[in-house]
Amino acid sequence: MSLAPSATASPVILFHAGAALAALGLGFHQMLRPKGTLPHRVVGWTWTILMAGVALSSLFIRSHWPKVGPFGPIHILAAITLLILPLAVLHARRGRILSHKRTMTGLFFLGLVVTGFFTLLPGRLMNQVLFGP
């Protein structure tokens, strides 16, 4: 593992990666801790803000993926995340806890875990950081 490949990355990419890693850690934390408590709500709001930051910052990252205009397929996931996050919060505020849980869990796995595996593909920055150039 070496952080050297990230030395040439843009600030947007560094923010995106940092926010995604923080959200990944907090997401795992949330799943293991008691629900409905004040700490759950504080960590949940922090996670929600981080996820919004991850999704918004991804809109400014240009990659080698196929594109339609300035956007590629990964940007669809960013748009979905930005639409679903407020819905998940609304579920909790209206007492629809099962819907809240399913929505947040889905966002965690699709928006962080699955997409995180794509960052490990050869040629991607996280692949170079973890496995070398």
Automatic annotation (TrEMBL):
It comes from the Bacteria. The keyword Oxidoreductase does not apply. It holds the Pfam family DUF2306. InterPro entries: DUF2306_membrane. The keyword Transmembrane applies. Keywords: Membrane, Transmembrane, Transmembrane helix. The chain crosses the membrane at residues 12-30, 42-61, 73-92, 104-123. This is DUF2306 domain-containing protein. It comes from Microvirga puerhi.
